[in-house]
Amino acid sequence: ATTATTITITGAGGQIGYALLFRIAAGDMLGPDRPVRLRLLEIPQGMRAAEGAALELQDCAFALLHSVEVTDSAESAFDGASIALLVGARPRGPGMERADLLAANAGIFGPQGAALNAVAADDVRIVAVGNPANTNALIARASAPDIPADRFTALTRLDHNRAVGQLAEALDARPDDIHGVAIWGNHSASQFPDVSHATVAGKPVVDALAERLGGHEQALVWLDDLFIPRVAKRGAEIIEVRGSSSVASAANAAIEHVRDEQSGTAWTSAAVVSRGEYGVPEGLVCSFPVTSDGSGYRVVEGLDLDARSRARFDASVAELEAERTAVRELGLL
Ligand code: NAX
C-alpha cells in the first residue's frame, strides 16, 4: 500500500478548515491514489470545533483517510508534514492598527515557521492562506532557514479563479477556455488582476471584450472600472451578499493551489518568494503568473507589461515592501 502523505491544516476548527478537510480526505487535493494523514492544529479555544470536525471525518469513513489527529502543539502538528496549509490567523479586530495585526500574526507564523523547520518532512511545501497571507508566508520563511525558499507560497489562486469567473461571465465562455490570466502583487485590494496576456478559446481576451463591448476603448474602461475592482474587492462583495466571508471558494482555491503545484500545471497564479523576477525585491512573497512541472511553482518570465500595468503592479509591490518594513521595524524579522 502507498504510504499516506501527512497534511497539516492550521486553524482547522475554523470555517475554511471545515470546508477543506472533507475535500482533502475525499482525495480532491492529492488524487484518488494517495492516502492522507491529517493533522489539525488549533489554539485551545478552537480545539473543540476541530475535534468535532474530526468526529465527522470519522463518520465519512473515507477510504483514503488513514488518520486524523487534533492538537494545539505546532511541533506535534507539523511532525513529518509534507504539506502545510497555514489557514489559522489573527483577524483584524475593531480598532486594531495594521502594526498590531502584523505583530499578532508574526506571533503565529514565526513560531509555526520554526516548528516546520524543526520537524516537517524534507519535502514539505507550505502555503499561507491566513491573512495577511503574503507577509505571513514571509514571516514563516524567515523562521525556517533550513527549508528552501521555493517551498513557501501564499494563496492568490482565489483571486485568479475570481478573475477567470468574471471573464467567463462577461464573454459567455467556459472557464476552461480562458488561459493566461495573472494576479500580480499582494493578496489585498492593491492586487493587479491582469488579462493582457489572456486568451479565450485562443483569441486575446482584450479583443473578445472589444467585440462584445463595441470597441477597444470600451474594453479598457470595463477592465479598469469594473473588472479589476470587482476581482480585488470580491471578498467584501461575498461578505455583503452572503453575510459571511468566502469559505468554500477559498478552500477550493487552496486545494487547487496544492494540487497543481504537486501534479504540474500550465499557467496559473500564486504568490512565491521573489528571486528578483520583474524587478520585485528579493525575498518578498509576491503573486506572479506561475507554472509547475510538479517540483514547485516557477514564475513565468519575460512577459511585457505596459506602463499602466507596471504602475498597478508596482503599487501592490510597494504595499508588500511596506508590510515587510513594518514587520522589521517591530523587530519581528
Ligand atoms: P475562522 O476565524 O473561521 O478560522 C480561523 C481559525 O484559526 C480559528 O478556528 C482559530 O481558532 C484558528 N487559529 C487562530 N490562531 C491560530 C494559531 N495560532 N494556530 C492554529 N489555529 C489558529 O477564519 P476562516 O474563515 O477560516 O479564515 C481563515 C483565514 O483565511 C483568515 O485569515 C482569512 O482572512 C483568510 N482568507 C484568505 C484568503 C486567501 O485567498 N488567501 C481568502 C479567504 C480568507 O479570507
TrEMBL record:
E.C. number: 1.1.1.37
Top class in the EC scheme: oxidoreductase
Active site per database record: 187
PROSITE patterns registered for this protein in UniProt: MDH (PS00068)
Residues that bind NAD(+): 11-17, 105, 112, 129-131
Keyword annotations of the record: NAD, Oxidoreductase, Tricarboxylic acid cycle
UniProt-listed InterPro entries: L-lactate/malate_DH (IPR001557), Lactate/malate_DH_C (IPR022383), Lactate/malate_DH_N (IPR001236), Lactate_DH/Glyco_Ohase_4_C (IPR015955), Malate_DH_AS (IPR001252), Malate_DH_type2 (IPR010945), NAD(P)-bd_dom_sf (IPR036291)
A UniProt-annotated Pfam family: Ldh_1_C
Positions of substrate binding: 92, 98, 131, 162
Gene3D superfamilies xref list: Lactate dehydrogenase/glycoside hydrolase, family 4, C-terminal, NAD(P)-binding Rossmann-like Domain
Domain Lactate/malate dehydrogenase C-terminal residues, every copy: 156-325
Domain Lactate/malate dehydrogenase N-terminal residue range list: 7-145
Superkingdom, natural source: Bacteria
Residue spans crossing the bilayer: none
Catalytic activity of the protein: (S)-malate + NAD(+) = oxaloacetate + NADH + H(+)
Gene Ontology molecular function: any one: L-malate dehydrogenase (NAD+) activity
Function of the protein: Catalyzes the reversible oxidation of malate to oxaloacetate.
Family classification: Belongs to the LDH/MDH superfamily. MDH type 2 family.
Alphabetical list of HAMAP family matching this protein: Malate_dehydrog_2 (MF_01517)
Protein name (Swiss-Prot/TrEMBL): Malate dehydrogenase
Origin species: Microbacterium alkaliflavum
